[in-house]
Amino acid sequence: MSSFKQELRLPKSIPDAWTSDTVTSTFVLDPVPTGGASLRTDSCGFGWHFEIAVNLEPSESQSDNWAANFAASFCFTPPTGNASGVMRTGLIVGCTAAMMFNPTYARTVSLGFCSPSLGTGDSVHNRIGMCSVRLEGVQRVTFTFRVSFPYGSPFKDPTSSAVLGDRAKDALTRTIESGEFVDVKFYLFTAVTRDGTVCRPKPIYGSRAVLHQVSYFLDNLILGDDFSESQIVDLDGEWEVKSSVDDYDYDEDSDLEELEEGEPQVKQTSLANSHVDVLEELTTPQMAATRRMGRICQPKNIAYKTFKGLLKYLYTQEITLAPLKSTQTAGKGKGTTSDLSSPKSMYRLADMIDLPALKQMCLDALRERLTVDNIFNELFSMFTSRYPEIREVELDFALDHWEESE
Question: What's 263's DSSP letter?
Fold first, then answer.
């Protein structure tokens, strides 16, 4: 066998399950690698992740039947601030692997347990354990990790409204001494041409202290050095924003303004360039020495208006969404000029970055906006075809109001 190992990301199959003293994370390996692999999971819980080394070797009983050794590890850098006290109480980490042979039969084995010793700010990489299993007939493997706090310390889902609110307050309080709140700048597009080219970028500012550990997507965007969208630079300096026709699958109810034929892709005064020009005119040598350093990110496949709505939600735990375009008066082809995001666009983003609470809020908002006049336009839309949960809600509405819509 080759010693080469694939490096693979292992995404969550379902959101983390939280109780008063346990966080359970589930990941599905499908298909099972045909060679060695190094798996890294999405971020879980308070920001920990897991790594699984997969090594294949011939079975002792049959030379043509391969066995897999799964070795799992727990990786974590405990946070500072409110959560650090909870971390110091100690925890127990366990892992099981369920081998699915067919739809009706699975065999579950334990990879073991570990009790990491944590100190605030100290990174840990603890081996949980390992197991050896034959791969003959195995269609997929489901890994379940349980992180338990044996002393029953109360803690909350870091994406809950209470925790997000505390983070925003903590970050704001720290500005009393630091004088700084903004340390990340996002560039996103506001418009799209008829040929699908996104254009007219605008910046949005944020605090990594508020956004950290909200989701795997945001963590890698604001902290990950391996993502091309993120770099540590002068936040007030120049930045080249690249336009593309790729990676934008918005369709109806897009939060991108649709430009008419002949409209310029760049407004008379580019926001990005004018921001830099004004700063250069007002900046003295003393001010230049204290310019803000941070990360500038250009998230792909997200419109400016949608991302702005997401940040408002993460800061305030509140969100107001726009009407559906299918309910608007005929003749407004370019849609609302409101600053509000479409419930479809926000649902799509919440699904993409794994924020179940926000996703449910968008689903409820979309349900409230269904009428007998727009139900069939919505039901047969491209957006609905992508999300079974949306389709179920709209089908129920259509059946409940069938006689009214005739």
Answer: -
What phi and psi, each to the nearest 5 degrees, are found at residue 49?
A: -145, 175
Question: Alpha carbon 133 to chain centroid distance?
Answer: 33
| Alpha-carbon torsion angle 153, 156, 158, 159, nearest 10 | 170
Binning the chain into helix, strand and coil, the percentages to the nearest 5 are: 30, 30, 40
* Secondary structure element (H or E) that encloses residue 394, with its range: helix 388-400
Sign of the four-CA dihedral 364, 369, 372, 375 = negative
Name which residue leads in pLDDT, 351 or 169. 351
For 105, phi and psi rounded to 5 degrees?
-140, 125
Which is it for the CA torsion 331, 337, 340, 345, positive or negative?
A: positive
How many CB atoms are located within 10 Å of the residue 229 CB? 16
Dist CA 18 CA 30 (whole Å):
25
Asked if 143 contacts 97 with a C-beta cutoff of 8 angstroms, the reply is: yes
Model-level pTM? 0.60
Q: Are 303 and 190 in contact (CB under 8 A)?
A: yes
Count of CB atoms situated within 10 Å of the CB of 176 = 7
Whole-number Å distance between alpha carbons of 342 and 347: 8
Least confident of 50-64, 281-295, 313-327: 281-295
Tell me the C-alpha distance between 265 and 107, whole Å: 57
Question: What pLDDT digit, counting tens, does each position of 216-240 carry?
Answer: 778 777 775 444 445 567 777 677 7
Q: Is 158 left (phi over 0), alpha (psi -120 to 50) or beta?
A: alpha
Quote the CA–CA distance of 334 and 325 in Å, as a whole number.
Answer: 9
Relative to beta strand 22-29, strand 49-58 is: unpaired
